[in-house]
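Justification of computing resources. Each target in the renewal requires a structure prediction run like the one illustrated here; the chain below, 301 residues long, is used simply to show the kind of job we budget for.
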Amino acid sequence: MRAILFQIVVVVFLSLVIGCAGARKSGLCEDLGTAAAKKGDLGAAEAAASDAWKNRKDIKSLKKAVASLREAVAIDPKKTGNYVRLAKALYLLGDGYYRFDEDKEEDMLNALKEATFFAERALKIQNPKFAFSVCARDSFKTTVKTLTKKDVPAVYWYAVALGKYGLAKSIMIVLDNKDRIYAMMRYILKNHPDYWHGAAARYLGAFHTKIPFPKGDAKKSKKYFLKSIKQAPNYLATRVLMAQMLAPKLKDRAMFKKQLERVINAPLNIMPQFEAEHAIEKRKAKELLENIDDIFPPSEG
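Resulting structure tokens:
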């Protein structure tokens, strides 16, 4: 009897948590209507965003880029490229800056949540068939067939922002969306594997440290991380994620140390277009390495 009651309590609890997790405003399925275009100079707003983005290593410039992209979206609500640019900028603001400040946790969550939303809006506007299929709860195999090459950037930034938001807010968000995200990442891996420097393989490497929940699948995770590193060995975020998410699961202190030292010792301009992002990855690596004895107690070494 107690076992049955316990199972009922667990089911009710998970239902409540998933319900709370699902409270995020969806850019795909909520009927938000079509915003009226705001008067303004679209070219000027986009140019201001581009100029500010070039100096995104400064958080003030990154915030200016976000503000200019919001303006651009308001002026032309149908131009989906600016939604994706805004999602990417918000993601960087949340994961690259606010994450380091305990007092900015709510700001981080809001930035990641908004990044997810704007990537979803891009998908809904440019691919109504995809949005309809998702909201009709079609099988994910059916839904993925509606995707096109044009959708890949929005799909990626949607998935990566939602994943980071879910891990920070509640693992139940990840679990509630895992099948959809998995299908979308498999689509990118199969059709556009080189997008964003091995993005799909990198994402699936992180994904399989958690899924199947709760133990994950370390063998699959390692396979995907190594695949992504082979595709883009100088893209430092992959190595940080591998150290942070996979090495502790394998109790592999040597892997942890090797990957993080590789990041720390890499020239900042190893990929000149990503100097700002790589400065952030180096900071993450330094913090993780400083805590190596907490993550891998010497007795386990």
